[in-house]
Amino acid sequence: MMQLICLGWVIGIATMGKTFPILQSLLIPSIVLFILVLLLKWTVLKHVHSLYFKCLQLCIGFSLGIALGYSYAYHQLNDRLQFREQQTEQVEVIVYVKNLNEWGGQSIQQKIQVLNRHAEAVQWQAFLKNEIDSKPQFTLELGQYYRLQGNTRPAHSYATQGAFDQEQWYLQQNIMSGFKVSAVQKLSEQDIYALGYAHYLRQQHSVLNQIQLWIEQQRLALRHFIDQQPVRNKGLLLALLTGDQSLLQPETEQLFQRFGMSHLLAISGPHVLIFALLLCWGLHQLICRYCPQIYLKCPKQYLLILPFCMCVLLYCAFVGFEIPALRTLLTCLLISAFVLLKQKIQALSILLFSASILLIFDPFSILSAAFWLSYGACFVLLRIYQTVQQQSHLEEIKTRTQAIKIQLKILIESQWKIFLALLPLMLMFFKQIAWVTPLSNLFAIPWIGLLIVPLDIIAALCYFIFEPLGGLLFQINDLCVSGLLIFIQVLDWIFSPTLQPIAMNMWTLLSLCLGLMILFLPRGVVPKLWAVVCFIPLIMTDVDKNDFELTVLDVGQGQAIFIRDQEQTLMIDMGGNYDESKFSVGKQIILPFLSVNGVSQLNQLILTHLDQDHRGGYESIKHDLPIKKVYSNEQVEVEKKSQFDYCHQGQQWHWSERVNITVLSPKPEHLAKAKFEKNEMSCVVYLQVKNVQPYQNFLLMGDAGWETEYHILQAYPDLKVDVLVLGHHGSRHSSAYHFLKQLKPKLTVASAGWNNRYGHPSVIVESRLKELNIPLLTTIEHGSIRFFKQQNIMSIAFERDRQQWLKH
Predict the structure, then answer these.
(1) Residue 623: helix, strand or coil by DSSP?
(2) Which residues are bridge partners to 255 per DSSP?
(3) Looking at the DSSP assignment, which residues form a beta bridge with residue 654?
(4) Range of weakest confidence among 183-187, 372-376, 699-703, 774-778
């Protein structure tokens, strides 16, 4: 029963951010029923063995676990949300620095403890400007207090399906706000005492906090030491040792990403175990040499358990208690307890108990991809180990050659099994895959695990004992890392791998999970051919034959609109960042959105005009996304498989009997002006959906202004509009009062960026709409806005309603 309660607990925690009233009302009844079942089991039914009663126990235990997990996650989330900053403002804060910083390209990111914002200290992420060719303007030292001035930078996600959720990441990391530093003043402990923070001073003087500070200082010293070594791959040496990627070159990071090996740059369970095993092996050798009689009084496995667990704890602390390391620590402690208590060790039970305990201390780790990938990989490895154990009972290993063959077989088998088993999780979190991953891991994992990481750890230990020897070992290890990179570069030359975006909707993903689950079940449980049935959706058309939908995507300060009706797909604009090389709207918002909606190609793309905030996303992904035909008011370079045509008044597309799309502007003879009057010559699109209520007619204005609005009213005096996507993101130079009054739409939508410098949507436009009693929806407030047809009703859904932390 405990396993089911733990499983229910994990599932309940996994609902974090979602509201399920039924689960809120389930808690008290579940507790009452659980107590009643236990009383019955211990009294009336003590000697009765009923299958129905046992099933009832399991169901109630599982329900109790879900209800407890949901309630715990709900209250923990609400407690954390109350400390979040919501607005950008200039503030002065008193802070304490207890965490190692992270070096970025043009900034240093430093977690700080803010003392004067709430009754208790909260954690912010400070950003300090980093000059590449000179020392940073400001530096914050570990264990010091400061008075900082600057601007808060609250997290604000692009609330679009598939896009990275920055607000979720901030919550998971316990960061309540970003903070751009403009001035720094160092404070002494006497200053902090005088300011009234004596209680915080006492906390930081505790033994535990002093140990944590010392560990962070040692990590910083090790970073500086490696940075000063005459080695080529200092970034990889540091990342593989402590998980600190501050010295890592962007080119190396991108190389590992393209091969699907980024997980090797993070600290994982094997790193921790290698350190513990090395030290315990050394301790064992000393005991065998000088006092072997100890093993007569205390068996080896019992004697070495405590040193082993202490080593695991020390290394976890040294790498900052990352989730994979914590998982390893908890698993080792549980296994040690089972060994000492002489209990049978069950792999799945250990994993469930470990995950449940981790979620008690840090329920927000459920939001991290590392949690799911770490436990998923561990489960697969345990299944492989169980299979190997079963085979070893059947096969007798007679020669070393046979042993090597078996080890190679295990290595190869483990790589493709891990790749396949984690495929759904990787698609769910990253929306892309590198098919060469199993091949590259086949060499990289043994090379890193058996050579580079052990040598890295030995070099680090030597650094703390005898610095010159540590430096020498790091230089030797640099040669090993260079060998690994040469191998990867050869693979890169042969295969030229790229991360392939995969278009897979929820149902296809579920069928993939079910099929893989059948493949990994022990033989005889379920026929393996059933997996083939589950894989059929993977080879079917990747575009759902859904009813009509229109989504105004949240792409910040820009516009991107997705339209689909059965197999027809169209996008109007693709947004764009001012510098797509720094943050790509196309790669990080548009492609992930299309992927989770099962779209791998577009039938049409209309770029209303060629401003960066409308076409920038297209330029960054045109090589990755097949598009049959591209339209714009100016010439656009398209891929060989795409066709181009100008958009102009009079063009029509009849998708079906119910959906009709018409271009209302510009006139063909005015296209020559587009180069000089980009906004006014925007392609204005009118879309009609028949036999639905209450929204049938959509008018999408691009960046068109008053002049275009006047011409549209002249050319189409009887135009019916239910939903108007405001021109130029709600600028005061668009959406004239007379235009709005004559069209009288039921609803207006403004696609604009949070805290944008232009003030879109304009207060003047909002006043016009308010006077005419026309509702306004914005992507700032609601995120992506989706109109979708259900029977004969056109409904609306807001992406910011999907998660509790996205609501403002």
Answers:
(1) coil
(2) none
(3) 660
(4) 372-376
Residue range 587-606, pLDDT digits in tens: 999 999 998 888 889 999 99
End-to-end CA distance of the chain: 40
For the residues 230-250, what does the mean pLDDT come to?
A: 89
> Kind of pairing, strands 652-654 and 659-665?
antiparallel
Strand pairing class (723-725; 747-750): parallel
**686 neighbors 697 (Cβ within 8 angstroms):** yes
Alpha-carbon distance of 116 to 110, in angstroms, equals 18
Residue tagged 């069928």 (tokens): 511
| Spatial distance between the Cα atoms of 413 and 405, rounded to a whole number of angstroms | 12
- What distance lies between CA 358 and its chain's CA centroid? 19
514-529 as b/e, with b when 16 or more CB fall inside 10 Å?
bbbebbbeeeeeeeee
CB half-sphere exposure, 619, CA atoms < 13 A: 18
Q: Which residues pair with 249 in a beta bridge?
A: none
CA distances to 207, 240, 478, 485, 539 from 232, rounded to whole Å, are: 39, 15, 7, 11, 45
Phi/psi at 597 (5° precision): -95, 10
Specify the 3-state DSSP secondary structure of 580.
Answer: coil
For the stretch 460-474, pLDDT in tens is 999 999 999 999 999
Contact (Cβ atoms closer than 8 angstroms) between residue 549 and residue 522:
no
pLDDT in tens, 364-374: 999 988 888 88
CB 162 within 8 A of CB 196: no
User: Of residues 44 and 495, which shows the higher confidence score?
Assistant: 495
Beta strands at 776-778 and 747-750: parallel, antiparallel or unpaired: parallel
Residue 526 pLDDT: 74
Alpha-helical (H) ranges within 530-688 are 530-539, 585, 591-596, 612-621
Instruction: Name 250's Cβ contacts closer than 8 Å, sequence gap at least 6.
Output: 105
Which of 196-210, 335-349, 657-671, 706-720 has the least mean pLDDT? Answer: 335-349
Peptide bond into 761 cis (omega under 30): yes
Cα angle 19, 23, 26 (rounded to 5 degrees) comes to 155
Judge contact between 73 and 363, C-beta under 8 A. Answer: yes
Q: Which amino acid is at 460?
A: A
